[in-house]
């Protein structure tokens, strides 16, 4: 059995006038995530962890922010496409652990829904998809509510 670990990290700016998509769902908040896509930082970190584990470059390589095809795209589509890329190489996902760094709003009540949505796209049991959240105790760009950050690790298996 071939086991491959991968790590992903992403940041998006928060600003007024944008929707706040996180973990595949729309969160009500006065600020939203700025991006070429819908700006879903959690999905982007998970995509990069999956691609990294399979040594398949990164999200910007496969879905460039210079390509109009990805303008305002729903990041759930990018996640589905990322899964297809690793399935072609014979990999499947064993488990994922992710952390969102966000000062406000509190997102813990939305996490069960995020896990349902993302686990279904990734064709995994929701008990193998962990999503956590933390503030940065008002420190740094996250603490100043200028941005949102996400980290993810994934373990892939090829039989
Ligand atoms: N945006 C966030 C940040 C954190 N949480 C939850 O609050 C708990 C306390 O977080 P601290 O950073 O103060 O340690 C933590 O257990 C998170 O689940 C949240 O829901 N949304
Ligand atoms: C997702 C892509 C493509 O729409 O755009 P952004 O929303 O700017 O996100 P980023 O995390 O910079 O990742 C790669 C991009 O190519």
TrEMBL record:
Cross-referenced Pfam families: YgbB
Metal-binding keyword on record: yes
Full protein name: 2-C-methyl-D-erythritol 2,4-cyclodiphosphate synthase
GO MF term (any one): 2-C-methyl-D-erythritol 2,4-cyclodiphosphate synthase activity
Site residues (Transition state stabilizer), renumbered to this chain: 36, 135
UniProt-listed PANTHER family: 2-C-METHYL-D-ERYTHRITOL 2,4-CYCLODIPHOSPHATE SYNTHASE, CHLOROPLASTIC
UniProt superkingdom: Bacteria
Function, as annotated: Involved in the biosynthesis of isopentenyl diphosphate (IPP) and dimethylallyl diphosphate (DMAPP), two major building blocks of isoprenoid compounds. Catalyzes the conversion of 4-diphosphocytidyl-2-C-methyl-D-erythritol 2-phosphate (CDP-ME2P) to 2-C-methyl-D-erythritol 2,4-cyclodiphosphate (ME-CPP) with a corresponding release of cytidine 5-monophosphate (CMP).
Keywords associated with the record: Isoprene biosynthesis, Lyase, Metal-binding
Classification via PROSITE patterns: ISPF
Residues annotated as binding a divalent metal cation: 10, 12, 44
Cofactor binding notes: Binds 1 divalent metal cation per subunit.
Cofactor(s) named in the record: a divalent metal cation
Top-rank EC class of the record's enzyme: lyase
Listed InterPro entries: MECDP_synthase (IPR003526), MECDP_synthase_CS (IPR020555), MECDP_synthase_sf (IPR036571)
Keyword Nucleotide-binding part of the UniProt annotation: no
Gene3D superfamilies the UniProt entry points to: 2-C-methyl-D-erythritol 2,4-cyclodiphosphate synthase
Reaction(s) catalysed (UniProt annotation): 4-CDP-2-C-methyl-D-erythritol 2-phosphate = 2-C-methyl-D-erythritol 2,4-cyclic diphosphate + CMP
A GO biological-process term: isopentenyl diphosphate biosynthetic process, methylerythritol 4-phosphate pathway
Residues annotated as binding 4-CDP-2-C-methyl-D-erythritol 2-phosphate: 10-12, 36-37, 58-60, 63-67, 134-137, 141, 144
Subunit composition and interactions: Homotrimer.
2-C-methyl-D-erythritol 2,4-cyclodiphosphate synthase domain residues: 3-156
EC number(s) given by UniProt: 4.6.1.12
């Amino acid at each position: 059995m071939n086991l491959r670990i991968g790590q992903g990290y992403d940041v998006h700016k928060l600003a007024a006038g944008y929707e706040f998509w996180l973990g595949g769902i729309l969160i009500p908040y006065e600020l939203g995530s700025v991006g070429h896509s819908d700006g879903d930082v959690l999905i982007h970190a998970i995509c990069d962890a999956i691609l990294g584990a399979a040594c398949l470059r990164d999200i910007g390589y496969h879905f460039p922010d210079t390509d109009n095809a990805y303008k305002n795209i729903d990041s759930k589509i990018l996640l589905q496409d990322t899964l297809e890329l690793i399935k072609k190489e014979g990999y499947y996902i064993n488990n994922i652990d992710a952390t969102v760094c966000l000062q406000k709003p509190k997102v813990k009540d939305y996490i069960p829904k995020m896990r349902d949505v993302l686990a279904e796209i990734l064709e995994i049991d929701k008990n193998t998809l962990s999503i956590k959240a933390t503030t940065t105790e008002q420190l740094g760009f996250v603490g100043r509510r200028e941005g949102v950050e996400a980290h993810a690790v994934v373990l892939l298996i090829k039989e």
